[in-house]
Amino acid sequence: MEKIKVSIMLELKLKFSLILCTIGRDKDVEIFLDSIVEQTYSNFEIIIVDQNLDQRIDLLLEKFPQLSEKIRLIKSEKGLSRARNVGLQYIDGDIIAFPDDDCIYTPNVLQRVADFFSKSSEKQVAYSTNTCDKKTGYSLIKSPTSAVDFDKNNLMGCSFTLFFKASLKSLKFDERMGVGSGFIWGSAEENDYLYRALDSNLQGRFEPDVYVYHPAKEQDSVDFQRAYYYGAGLAAFRCKHFSKLRAFKSTLLLCYEIALSVVTFKFKKAAFKGGYLLGYLMGLLAWKLTIR
């Protein structure tokens, strides 16, 4: 009985604001909303920032009448960082998250995050779940096998695995970075956001047994364009926050990873890293020439 009372108190106290930005997808958004319906924790709102020119999302939401009071649909211009900043203007919760429109929450995600923030210290402002591809088990990122704290010098997680205290709601994404920004720096906007969120010695927590599923497309094919923009985004992040020496070390590391992939006959990975390196070098040059 006492555990039930505690759970009810948590639901009344902590509300999630889930900012989901979408363009060009509706089936994936439907799958995500299906996973939200299955959540064991119910105190949340979903702010869908729709960048489509058609009404596909409006039509999709008709399938989820049970979520009608929890969803706010907002239109926005294209650009992921831009759309997230639009969504941040409407949040009403205590915990902020930025689920991708093709990710899936496992049923206990919100409950586990709420449990963490209900007892977190003032310094702990971020939380990251683990992630993998639901079908293959492959992960986009390398993660520890045990729970660990992290800070701005040791970032963990990616945009769709991260949850933040709403005390950070005034923090905005750098709209020069990310998919659809109109600039070469097509990624790393979440690293930039997390780095700034953890300034002033603030901390995050990573827990490996809580999952948000996300496709790991790089495993199956070599997308040079994706690799190129990923590399350019990393370059912008390095230039913005670190020394020239750190940027140079990243270049050497990428060269090493390419060579290692070749000698271990991982040619797809080598090709992807090659595109990444090219994007990284062009991103460095573009930042140097255009950002003052």
Give an account of the 3D structure.
By secondary structure, this protein is an alpha/beta fold. 41% of the residues lie in helices and 17% in strands. The longest helix has 24 residues, at 267-290. The radius of gyration is 19 Å and the shape is globular. The termini are far apart. The mean pLDDT is 92.
Instruction: Report the count of strand segments.
Output: 9
CATH superfamily of the largest domain: Spore Coat Polysaccharide Biosynthesis Protein SpsA, Chain A
The outline comes out as globular
Distance between the termini: 60 Å
In short:
The protein has helices at residues 2-13, 27-37, 56-61, 80-88, 109-118, 189-197, 224-241, 244-263, 267-290, and strands spanning 16-22, 44-50, 71-75, 95-97, 104-105, 124-132, 148-150, 162-165, 203-213.
Question: Which helices and strands occur, and which strands form pairs?
Answer:
Blueprint: H1 2-13, E1 16-22, H2 27-37, E2 44-50, H3 56-61, E3 71-75, H4 80-88, E4 95-97, E5 104-105, H5 109-118, E6 124-132, E7 148-150, E8 162-165, H6 189-197, E9 203-213, H7 224-241, H8 244-263, H9 267-290
Parallel strand pairs: 1-2, 1-4, 2-3, 6-9
Antiparallel strand pairs: 4-8, 5-9, 6-8, 7-9
Helix pairs in contact: 7-9, 8-9
